[in-house]
Each structure stands twice: as C-alpha cells, then as structure tokens.
Design a protein that fits this description.
Blueprint lengths: L6 H26 L15 H12 L18 H24 L14 H9 L2 H34 L3 H19 L3 H33 L4 H27 L1
Length: 250
C-alpha cells in the first residue's frame, strides 16, 4: 500500500521509520549509559581469531548500506548528496549503536536473549520501554523490506525501461499473492529460502564489483583506485557466499 501510494509517500514513511529508530536508539543509549562496561573488558577474553571472524561476519550486514544508491537517479546533485547522506547516517548509527550495546561487554548474557535490546530495556529501563524497543525492532525489519522493495523496483526499471508505476504494481501484486504461502510454515519458509536468497545477494554484489573497473575505464577514471576497490569488494562478496554456505551446512 505504501509503495502504491507513490514515491513521496514511500520516502516520507521511510524517513519517519529512520527517525523513529534513531530516537529509540538514543533513548536506549541514555538508559544504559550508567551501566556500561570498563574499557579494559573489551577483547580481554575474546580470542583474536574469533574476534576477527565475528567482526567480518557482522560487517556482512552492512551490505544493506548499498540500498540508498538505487535512488541515485532521483536525488538532486547525487554526487554530492548521497556521499554526505551515507557518511552522516553511518556515523549517527555507529555512535548510537556503540553507546547502546556497551553494557553487553560486561553482561554477555544479554546476547543470548531473543531480542537483546528488549532485555536491556527491561532490566535497565521499564516495561514500556522494552515494548517500545520490541515494536521498533519489528518496524526496522519492515523498513528494510520497504527499502529493498524500492531498490528492486528501481533496478527492474533500469534494466527493462518499463514505467516505474507499472513495475511497482506488478511487484506489489506478486508479494501480496505469494506472502500467504509463508504462513503455512513460517520457519520452513524462511529456512528454505535463506540460503538461495543470500547466495543470490552476494552473487549480484560480485558481478557489480567485478565490472566496476570497466565502468571507470569507459569514463576515463583512475584505474588503480578502481581495481583496488573491485578486488576488496569481490573478496568481500566471495567471503559472504562462503560464510552463507558454511553457516547453512552447520
């Protein structure tokens, strides 16, 4: 419904979700600020190999940071606006998340809870805050789905040249028709589609990264930075596929 309402409504709702998430993160950080861990607790007991592995796997989540780039053609002065937006957004979220999860270093039991943020809010805050954080987590998942929906419609539009409104309606119908199937067995639906979906995600990233040097060369750009970025990005995508396969097997 949000997507079919048009671009203005879709982006407005996305913006409201983002502001709401930042507000919740800020409130949760304020609640936990007096319960943080001493600086010497970080890395004191974590083996270096496990720390590097877990950091790399956590970094895979930031592939979602590429989603705003799909709106590059609709932004005024994209070469200026998008980099500023990405850097500013990343810094705001990084500061908020670090401040919020700081207690986990001294209280690792929070990490074993189904929703750690809710547990932290329940212990250090109130029941109302915990429920708000839980609702915020659900909203954040819906927000990511919405942004992925936006990216999918823009990608299909760029590849086919079909009208954006028609593509949006077609994708909406497809999702509405197929979504009830997942309710038959949500766990199995998620489990069966997780591996192929993630492999397709990393394969698409690998293709884009591999052809990037050619893209730059056609526009007279510098080759060394382009190849450096391409090699690092390709290695990241390959690692994502390997981690996906290993995690699914285990």
């Amino acid at each position: 419904g949000i997507m079919l309402a048009g671009r203005t409504v879709t982006l407005a709702v996305t913006g409201l979700l983002a502001v709401g998430q930042l507000a919740l993160v800020g409130i949760l950080a304020g609640v936990t600020i007096g319960h943080d861990a001493p600086l010497d607790s970080f890395g004191a007991t974590a083996p270096s190999g496990a720390l590097v592995r877990d950091a790399a796997q956590t970094a895979l989540l930031y592939v979602c940071g590429s989603l705003p780039l799909f709106l590059g053609g609709e932004v005024v002065r994209p070469h200026r606006t998008i980099p500023r937006g990405l850097v500013t957004g990343y810094l705001l979220v990084a500061v908020g998340v670090v401040a919020t999860v700081f207690p986990l270093a001294a209280n690792p039991s929070f990490g074993f809870e189904p929703i750690p943020g809710v547990a932290v809010a329940q212990v250090f805050g109130s029941r109302t805050l915990a429920v708000s954080v839980g609702v915020g987590v659900a909203a954040s998942v819906a927000g990511v789905m919405l942004v992925e929906y936006i990216a999918l419609t823009r990608l299909v539009h760029a590849l086919t040249g079909r009208p954006l409104r028609r593509i949006t309606a077609a994708v909406a119908v497809a999702l509405v028709v197929t979504a009830p199937i997942s309710l038959i067995d949500p766990a199995a639906f998620y489990r069966d589609l997780l591996k192929p979906s993630l492999i397709a995600l990393w394969l698409s990233q690998l293709i884009v990264s591999a052809v990037y040097p050619r893209f730059v060369a056609k526009r007279g750009g510098r080759r060394i930075p382009a190849w450096t970025l391409a090699v690092v990005s390709c290695a990241f995508a390959v690692y994502g596929m390997v981690a996906t396969i290993q995690h699914t097997i285990s």
